[in-house]
Amino acid sequence: MNKALIICPLSVAIGTKYKQERPEWLKKAHLEAVLTLPPDLFAGQETGSHTCLMVWKTSVISIKETYLMNCKNDGFVVLKGKRFDKDNKWKLVKKGWLAMCWTKYLKQPTIAVQKKLTAQDCWLADAWVETDYSPIFNDPIFLKKKIEKTIRDYLAFRISMFSDINWNKE
User: Fold this and answer.
1) I need a labelling partner for 3 at 20 to 30 A (CA). Which of 38, 65, 156, 163 fits?
2) In contact, 36 and 72? CB cutoff 8 Å
3) 170 assigned to some structural domain
4) DSSP β-bridge partners for residue 5
5) Is the full-model pTM beyond 0.85?
6) DSSP readout, 99-128?
7) How confident is the model over 125-146, as pLDDT tens digits?
8) The domain containing residue 151 runs over which residues?
């Protein structure tokens, strides 16, 4: 059993690129997993591409489900073009991700799912996982600030609509 691990742009997994090739890939191999990588993974490099890691099993035709996992939040921050584990979260995040991957692809509805995919489907976890709204609604201060900002933005929009009116009608 041969495996290939490929880091590629998200456009390959979304399906905006290589539309003709995707059906052929699935005929020749099984897409075992797709992990969405952090958007700033290559910060400081010349490339600004958001990437994912695809795991292909070359000796099996794609008849099984594919494991899709969102690995975008690794705890790192970008300072002066370089990534740093500012709050020392990486060890814990890495341990959790490895546990999910090595326990036969553990599913967590807001992070990882398994899906039978076709060439026309989006091959990223974001398209299939449930959205976790709890950080928004469990933090009353955040929610209050968000509501206030939305109201201010709306009022500014409404006022700007009147600024185009010529009030000096002659």
Assistant:
1) 38
2) yes
3) no
4) 55
5) no
6) HHHHTTS--BTTTEEEE---TTS--SGGGT
7) 989 988 877 766 666 777 778 7
8) 134-163
Q: How far is CA 75 from CA 39, 47, 131, 158, in A?
A: 12, 21, 19, 39
CB 124 within 8 A of CB 34: yes
Structure tokens at 53: 């890691």
Q: Is 74 exposed, middle or buried (0-12, 13-18, 19+ CB in 10 A)?
A: middle
CATH value at residue 13: 3.40.50.150
The two three-digit tokens of residue 21, written as one number: 């090739």
Q: Are residues 29 and 63 in the same domain?
A: yes
> Domain for residue 101, yes or no?
yes
Q: In 3D, which of 3, 76, 73 has the Cα closest to residue 43? A: 76
